[in-house]
Amino acid sequence: MNTSVKKILIVGGGSAGWLTASLLAADYRFDKSVQISLVESPDVKHIGVGEGTWPSMRGTLQRIGLSETDFIVSCNASFKQGSWFRNWHTHTHPNHYHHPFTPPVAAAEFDIAPYWFPHSDKVDFAHAVSTQAAMIEAGLAPKQITTPEYAFVNNYGYHLDAGRFVQLLQRHAVNQLGVEHILDNVVSVNGDKDKPIQSIQTAQHGLIEADLFIDCSGFASLLLGQHYDINFLEQRHVLFNDCALAAQVNYAEPETAIASATLATAQSAGWIWDIGLQTRRGIGHVYSSAHSSDENAEHTLRRYIGEQGADVEVRKIAIKPGFRETFWQHNCVGVGMAAGFIEPLEASALVMVELAAKFISEQLPSGQRQMAITAKRFNETFRYRWERIIDFLKLHYVLSKREDSDYWRDNRDAASIPESLSEMLEVWRGHSPSRYDVPMAEELFPAASYQYILYGLQHCAGKKSKPVNPRFQQRALQQFQYMAAQKQQLKAGLPNNRTLLKQIASHGLQTI
Amino acid sequence: MATIERLNNVSHKDVKINTAYSPELGDNVMFSLTFPAEFRSAQAYYPIVFHKDAQSGQFYPVVLLGFQQQENLFLNQGKWDAGYVPINVSRQPFSIGVQDGQRVVNIDTDSAKVSADGEPLFLEFGGHAPYLEKVSGMLEALHHGVEENKGFVECLLEFKLIESFTLDVTLNDGSQHQLLGFYTINEDTLNELTDEQYLTLRAKGYLTSIYMMLASQSQFADLVSRKNKQLNLA
């Protein structure tokens, strides 16, 4: 990588800042001419968004050179194999569906969905086309102690303690990867608003110059928002949730089972997340302030938590759903909440940081002229990604049949649905979701994800359109039988989450 | 089920051990733990490879006795069909226990090897019979072997000398089988070690063990021919 960007300054030290710093430092550790510094205020408390990651985090941690054992032990981490949605379809009777991390079986070969239609009243989609939903329900881990680190039997990401994650990344970035850590407050930004940033004025460390500034300053958005005045495109008209109440609840017993998926339970004005770490659960209520008072929301949350957490402290977090109109302006690029934020329904916050950090690292411009092109591409790519996340999250609400509140009815109001999503819904009257709907090479949500949500919410995408092509009939039948047999085998061989986490704490995972 | 008791010359006075080898006596194991001090004897008959412990994921060396679970191709009409029986097999049904910080001999009294006839454990007045003396020696060797394995494996992992391998076996009837879940010495890494690393291996006495493991790979052919013979394909 030949680049004139020699000095990179990251402003802000939350998970976005330290992940970006670690990734860049790891990628450029053999190139001594590239210097990476991170300045963070000693006074800012980090929000610690989302305690859930995508499977991509395994690759990211490996790339920055962390051992999975160290990560799991020091971040109170557990395994996340997908999302488990409860009561999203209707409020009248208990219902649930899965969005597992493993795509439908044989997805690379053919679309199995149409062959599942005739059986859809007997077995739900996720259970028919993957083994993972059954493992999640059985509370089983995605691997064994003999599976090497970062490898899997079933695809997985993590649930983690965001605070400890930041500490681990910081230690690793500073001690192992040579990132310069400056604890100081940014006083001002030097440079004209229509030109590249020249330097940052700090309280104790004077002027800090750099070739590239990465804004990881969270909601404050010191560089993109405050210095460059970049528009924030608020999305509350699409995704209504603007508040979250978060709590930490201890397990009833030290041996209580640890869930293998993020539980997301629909409520009358939002939904509740439930994330099982090794020693506690993180539970929170995301809701729309236009549809519920804080008191009601807290009441709903406490009712969900139950007796056992009667006295837990509840912390309120404001959510401003939306993203910046531009993410990369001149020599400044925003990563994390400085770029945008959306409710954590599909835990997209950290994966967006990973994607941004990788893009920056792999496409570090070779000079100022190239920087403008890189910026343009970055902006197009991430604009597309934010829009797709919004479409995908909105889908969860649009397809609900809940009638218990205006919240759900308003969510189905055509005026609140982005045109891109309306278009897809129109196409899906006759087709199951396919790669033609989401054509990018690095789609955040592949067609498989749309299938899991649509069929999970009992949408009939493609069901009534045309007779099923008999070409793959036999293959599909084999695959369904294979899934059933695999489930039995996996259930016999996989440990439960707590057992595996204990084995990892005692013995560690092998690297091979 | 196993019932493990501390061996003593009162309750086990009349216990005798059937020293034959057969599936009925619990010898139908696909592989069995070994250790560097045993490599010299073992490599003459068995492939020596690494396996991961199912409870801890830790590597340990094993002699390979078959190609699938519960298959031991060295069992032949009550006899062990090779010139050397691995200690972890021949020490059955005894194991090492610890009591008050001392190593003691335990016996699994549920083992099918515990029988009315066979080798006595104790002499008339309570002293150890020669057979028990021999078993004690084996358990002692096994204990030190397991300790030695830890350092051996740790050093090999540090130098990235362990790699997984897949053995594709074609039997004489053309049927194809695959052996998975075992690991061996990575020869490419071995040949590219720095002088310093190589000297470390020599100083720790691991070089011989490494090369014996490599040499033992020629026993895979013997294992395949035993399999063919068992299936009457030879």
From TrEMBL, chain A:
UniProt cross-references to SUPFAM superfamilies, sorted A to Z: FAD/NAD(P)-binding domain (SSF51905)
Cross-referenced Pfam families: Trp_halogenase (PF04820)
Superkingdom assignment: Bacteria
InterPro entries per record: FAD/NAD-bd_sf, Flavin-dep_Halogenase_NPB, Flavin_halogenase, Trp_halogen
PANTHER family: FAD-BINDING PROTEIN (PTHR43747), FLAVIN-DEPENDENT TRYPTOPHAN HALOGENASE (PTHR43747:SF4)
Name by which UniProt lists this protein: Tryptophan 7-halogenase
Organism: Alteromonas ponticola
Lineage of source species: Bacteria, Pseudomonadati, Pseudomonadota, Gammaproteobacteria, Alteromonadales
UniProtKB/TrEMBL annotation, chain B:
Domain of life where this protein originates: Bacteria
Name the UniProt record assigns to this protein: SapC family protein
Organism: Alteromonas ponticola
